Every structure is written in structure tokens, then in C-alpha cells.
Amino acid sequence: MDPRAMVIAFKTVASPKERKNLSVKIKYLLIGSAALFFFLGLATVMLITAVIGSLGVGITSGFRSGAPTAFAVSDIPAQYLPVFLKAQEKYGVSWAVLAAIAKVESSFGLNMGPSEAGAVGFMQFMPGTWEKYKQDGNGDGVYDPYNPWDAVFSAANMLHSNGFEKDPEKALYLYNHAGWYVRKVMAIAFQYSSAMIPPGQGMWPLPSRYISISSGYGMRLHPVLKEYRFHDGIDIPAPAGTPVFAVQDGRVAWDRSKGGYGLCVVLNHGSCTTLYAHLSEITVRAGQEVKAGEVVGSVGSTGLSDGPHLHFSVYVNSRPCNPEEWLAVPSGNY
Ligand SMILES: [Zn+2]
């Protein structure tokens, strides 16, 4: 029945008693569907949280790689890139190194063996090594060396267990005992991502008293513009005049005002650049070489800012990365 016809029927044909019954029925129908939508929504949110939670937990140290290069995007089959990135997130092992291993070992799943030596699957594990380090990367309850998620997470687990975060090349040597193998994998990894910086090696850009982050990296409601925007760095509140330090050795690439960033300094470190924004003053000049820990300026509130804080960004291949992965947060004991 046409809804409009129903309304007409409701208004004209039905007796007062029938109208009342119909109203009650419509009311229950509305309450019922509202409740159903609420529980469906709640279930969806819980499911998404569980998935994100299961992927996000892990070890936060180790060598990580920056954004994929154009070569990486053309060379790595698109469906596998998230596998390597998620493995880096969980185990702190460079996604580019994991992708390079997958290329060398199985050409991204095209030759999964068994090899003459008996190695099997996407990352070519020997059965004994597989038993020792196997992970259920896709969470289906099965440990399958032919499944890319399981194989890549297991390789990341093995490299992490063998001290990848301290000495990536030594951990790789333990993966496959050959010098040529280590050199080949590392050469491909560097083509996939030009930067491989051990996180925790960048100095904290402010005195260790100021370690709280008022606004993290990612989408957020802009404090001044009051609209959702991508925040390409982290905000660390500190009183105006607090000294700001270079996080690594580098060369000053920018030393003046830049739009919403206000007065800012950009340092070029070769493998990445760092940005220090909303400064009240700048104490270095473009072209100058600076050492890690050297003062580059003072905290302020210039540009689009709602109070004194340092906005700090890291860019790899001109793309922003999460600075929290690249910096050592001070313990506060010094
Ligand atoms: Zn900011």
C-alpha cells in the first residue's frame, strides 16, 4: 500500500478507536526499529574496535620504514602492501624489509615451493623454523605458511626475536645464512622506502618536563577552525620561550613564517625532514648545519594556534609520518 494512501486512510476512513490502535502499532514499530538500529550500530562499533585493537597491539620499538616509494607501489602487488604495513605496526620490523624478503623468497607468492631444501610458503620457512616462530596473522585459528598474513607476521616475529631493532642485518643473516642474501634484501628494501630510521633515536624536541601530547597525529577537530582536518604532526604544550631542540643532525631548510604554522623551522636530515612550528623566535638561519639537541628557536603561539605549544612534524619523501614512531619520549629522569 502506498504510504500516502495509508495516511489518507488513517485520517479519513479509520474510526477514532481504530486510529488509536494504529497509532499504538506505529509507535511500537518505531521504538522497535530504533532499538534494532542502536544494537546493530553498537555491534558494528564493537567489531571495528576489536579488529583495530587486535592489529594495533604490539611492540613499539624497532627499525621501521617510511612511506612507500613510487617503485614500491608499482613493484609490490597492491593486496600485500597492507600485510607488510600491519606487520611493521605490530612487530616494529620495517615493512620494506618484509616486502623485500617476500619478493626474494617467493616473488610475492608466485613460487611457494616446497624448495629443494624443503622451505615452504609465502616467506619460504623451513618446517622447524616455522614451528618456532609461527603466527596466526589473519586470526583464523590456523597457522598456514602459505597464507601471506600468517607468513609475513611469522617472519616479522622471527626478525624481532632475533634483535632486528638493534641490528637489522644480523637478524636478516639469521633468517637466511648468506651475506649476499642480506645485501640483496636490504638493497630492495631501500628501493621500497628511502628511509629506515630506528625510532627512539630522534631526540625529544623540548625539555623533558614537556612530554604530554595535547593533539596527536591524524584526523582531528581543528582547535581554531573547528572543522575536521588531518593533523600532520603532534602538538606539545609548553610555556612561551621554552627552547626547541633539533631532533637529529641536519641542515636548516626554512627559517621564517609559513601560513598556519606561523614562525617555523624546517630541518633537512637527508632521509627525512622535521618541522617545528608556532615558534616565538628562530635562532638558526637557512643553510646552517645543526647538531641533534641544538636550540633552533623558542616555543610560541604564532600562526593558527590556540596557545603556546610546539607543533612538530616528520616528513619522509615529502609525506607526513607519525612523529611518535620516530622520537624517544624522555623518561623525565633527567
Ligand atoms: Zn599541530
UniProtKB/TrEMBL annotation:
The chain crosses the membrane at residues 28-55. Residues 84-184 form the Transglycosylase SLT domain. It comes from the Bacteria. Residues 229-323 form the M23ase beta-sheet core domain. InterPro entries: Cell_wall_metabolism_enzyme, Dup_hybrid_motif, Lysozyme-like_dom_sf, M23ase_b-sheet_dom, Transglycosylase_SLT_dom_1. Keywords: Membrane, Signal, Transmembrane, Transmembrane helix. SUPFAM superfamilies: Duplicated hybrid motif, Lysozyme-like. GO terms for molecular function: metalloendopeptidase activity. This is Peptidase M23. It comes from Desulfofundulus kuznetsovii (strain DSM 6115 / VKM B-1805 / 17). The lineage of its organism: Bacteria, Bacillati, Bacillota, Clostridia, Eubacteriales.
